[in-house]
Design brief:
Number of helices: 1
Strand content: over 45%
Distance between the termini: 72 Å
Number of domains: 1
Number of strands: 9
Structural class: mainly beta
Oligomer: single chain
Largest sheet: 9 strands, parallel
Helix content: under 10%
Length: 133
């Protein structure tokens, strides 16, 4: 029996939150199925299936695609989300695509908001009629 027996292996946690610690800088493209909290700096494109939290010490610059975004630090760029919350120490500069935006007293937003684009749905019966017609 070796040191690495099957029983001692740690199982991966699907619901774990990824943390970008204070003092850590990342540049590039991130894709996450879980939540993420940014205490450091992230520059680039971030795709999050769940929630992105930018803490007081956090700074994100670029483009965000997420279900929910909570900003208590700084964000500059374009954000596509189902829900966006700017907390009392949060600052957002740029463009927001969402139908659910909330800003607490003390929170700052400088930019433009747009409704979240509807998913394009094609009615197959209409497409079939056009092809036959």
């Amino acid at each position: 029996m070796g040191i690495f027996s099957k029983q001692s292996r740690a199982k991966s946690q699907q619901s774990a939150t990824t943390l970008i610690a204070k003092g850590c800088s990342i540049n590039g493209q991130l894709r996450l199925e879980s939540d993420i909290q940014v205490d450091g700096n992230v520059e680039g494109q971030v795709h999050v299936d769940k929630t992105l939290v930018i803490s007081e010490t956090g700074f994100v610059s670029g483009e965000i695609f997420a279900d929910r975004v909570i900003v208590n630090g700084q964000f500059e760029g374009t954000c596509h989300a189902t829900a966006i919350e700017i907390l009392n120490r949060g600052s957002v500069t740029g463009t927001i695509y969402s139908d659910n935006l909330s800003i607490e007293p003390g929170g700052k937003f400088n930019g433009v908001t747009h409704s979240k684009p509807e998913q394009q749905v094609v009615d197959l019966s209409d497409a079939k009629k056009k092809a036959e017609g």
